[in-house]
Amino acid sequence: MKKPYSIIIYFLLLALPIYQHAFAQQTSAVPAEAKENSYFRLDFVNQDYELSDVEDHFFTTFPHDDPTEGDVVYDRTRWVNKEMIKLTKNDGLYLYIKDRKDGKQFDSIRMTSKALYNLNKDNQQLLFVFKGKLPSVKGAWPAWWLNGSRQHEWTYQNIGFVSSDSDLDKYSGKGRFYETPSAVNSTDWPAAGEIDIIETINGDNVIHNTIHTCPQMCDSEWNNDGDIVNCANARPGDPNPGCSGRSYTVESMEGTFACIWQKNGLKFYYWAPSEDVRSAGGPLSENPDPDEWDKSNLKNEVRLLETDATCEDEAHQAWQCSSCDGANTCLFSNMKVIFNITLCGKWAGAKFDDSGKSLQNCQEYIVGEGRKAIDNQYIKIEYVSVSRLRS
C-alpha cells in the first residue's frame, strides 16, 4: 500500500521546482525597484557604482516621441550614437545629447525613476536632492522634475513585469506619445500633477520652479505674496502654463538643488557649487535638516489650496478636460523623478528669439551654427537622492 504514495510524492517533488518558478513569476509582477516610496541615495563622488546600480533605480530610455515636441530622440532603439550614458569613478554620471548628423535631430536622454512617490500618514514630507551640472547653450531645455499619473501602465498594474529598458523597447514606434501610455509616459497629464524643480532654456541660466495641475485641482499662493493663482491657468488664454514662483539667476548651471514636498505645499532650494552641502544637517548629509539651512537658499515656497475652478471648454482644450475628469482635489500622486534634455520645442523654441518665426530659427540654429556647441553637452549627476523627512 505504501508504493503508490511513494510514487505520488516522487512526482510532487519533481513538480515543485516548476510550481516555485511559476509562483516566482506571479509574485514579481511589479519589480522591486518600482515599489512606492522606495528611497535611495546615489553619491557618485564618494561611492563606487556600476551602471547596473543606476539601472536599479532608473529607466534610461523613453520609447516615444518627445511630448514637448523637441528635436531629440529619447528612444535607445533609434539612437545612432554610442555611450549616451557614462559613469566616471569618483566624478559623476553623465547623460549626453549628441548630434545624429541627419540635419534634423539629436540623440538625447530622458531618465525616469522606477519608483513612484506618494505622501501618506507615514510619509508626510519627502525630500528630493540633486547635485551636478546641466547644459547651458542656446536651443537647449534641460530639466529635473517630477511627474505623476493614475494610469495602470505608469503604476505597473495589469501590465506584467516591467523592470528594464528592454521591457520598454516594445513601445518603440507604437503611436504618438499622447496615445501610448507606458511606465515612463503618461497620457492623462496633468491629472496627477507635475512639479518642475529645474527648468532653464537657451543658456540664460535662469531657473524656473513651476507646477502643472488640472484646473479643478489646485490654486496656489507663492512666497506669501497674497495672490491666489490657479495652477492650470496662470495667464488668460493659456491652456496649461501652470503656476510659477520667482525665477532666479545662477552664475553657472551647476550646484545643488532640492525640493521638499509636503501635503499643503512645496519648497525649492539652491546652493552654489562652492557652498557646503555635506556637513551635518546639510542636503547631502545622512540626516538632512531643513531647519538648519540658510534662508537665502530657499528660492520659492508655495502654499497649495483647494479650488472651486472647473475645466471649461471656453478656457481649456478638450483633451485637458478629458484627462482631468475626476481630478477634483489638490492631490499629487504616483510621482516619478525625471531628468532630460530637449532642444527647441514648445518653450525653448518659442522663446529662442523675438522674431515671428522663433521656433523655425531655433531648429535651423541647432543643426547649423549651434550644432557643435550642443553636441556632447550633458547633465552631470554627482548626487541624487529621495528621502523622507521627519515631520
Query: Helix/strand-derived class?
Result: alpha+beta
Q: What is the alpha-carbon Rg in Å? A: 23 Å
H/E element order: HEHEEEEEEEEHHEEEEEEEEEEHEHHHE
Number of domains: 2
Q: Sheet bearing the most strands, described?
A: 12 strands, mixed
CATH architecture label name of the largest domain: Sandwich
The CATH topology of the largest domain comes to Jelly Rolls
Residue runs with pLDDT of under 50 for 5 or more positions: 1-30
Helical content class? 10-25%
Tell me how many strands there are.
21
Note the total helix count.
8
Mean pLDDT: 90
Strand-residue proportion:
25-35%
From the spread of the alpha carbons, the general shape counts as: globular
Put the structure in a nutshell.
16% of the residues lie in helices and 28% in strands. The chain contains eight helices and 21 strands. Strands 1, 3, 4, 5, 6, 8, 13, 14, 17, 18, 19 and 21 form a twelve-stranded mixed sheet that branches. Strands 2-7-20-9-10-12-15 form a seven-stranded antiparallel sheet. A two-stranded antiparallel ribbon has the order 11-16.
